[in-house]
Amino acid sequence: MKKLDNTLVIGIGNNARHDDGLGWVFLDLLEKEGFKTNNLLYKYQLMVEDAELISTFKTVIFIDACKSEIKDGFSFERIYPSEEVSFSTHSVPPNQILNLCETLYAKKPKAHLLKIKGFNWDIGIGLSKQAKTNLKNAFSYFIENHFR
């Protein structure tokens, strides 16, 4: 298995809201596979301060649950800095964090977004059956295509 070396994997979500915790559970699985914990970051949401953190890595991978329909229950795509930045005090999308990273720190890490389809967003612990299936498929794809 390849190492994450200069790669940061950010799991975005909230494990107290059922399937919103998919990003965090994905990181738990990576840790069980032996990935270094200093390359894994659990976040409730992205904030402008994260631009500084990602500027220190060559590659960043964002993992997040989504509500929209996705073929195969997940998607893995390359993302780029947005051309415009607008944010609230609530959260900042990954492509805008990349823009801030490039603008403020003159760094442009290679970035990907892994979205995993969730179904249950109510308060509570544990993933829905369908989300577990999507997580399993996304994790298998990720390991086989990017770390073997």
List keywords for this structure.
4 helices; Rossmann fold; single chain; 148 residues; alpha/beta
Structure at a glance:
This protein has 148 residues and is of the alpha/beta class. Helix content is 31%, strand content 22%.
Tell me the domain tally. 1
Instruction: Identify the overall geometry.
Output: globular
CATH class: Alpha Beta
CATH architecture: 3-Layer(aba) Sandwich
**Helical proportion, percent range:** 25-40%
Structure description:
The protein has helices at 22-32, 50-54, 94-105, 129-146; strands at residues 7-12, 40-43, 59-66, 74-79, 110-117. The protein is 31% helix and 22% strand. The protein has 148 residues and is an alpha/beta fold. The chain has a 5-stranded mixed beta sheet. The mean pLDDT is 90. It has a single domain, classed as HybD-like (Rossmann fold, 3-Layer(aba) Sandwich).
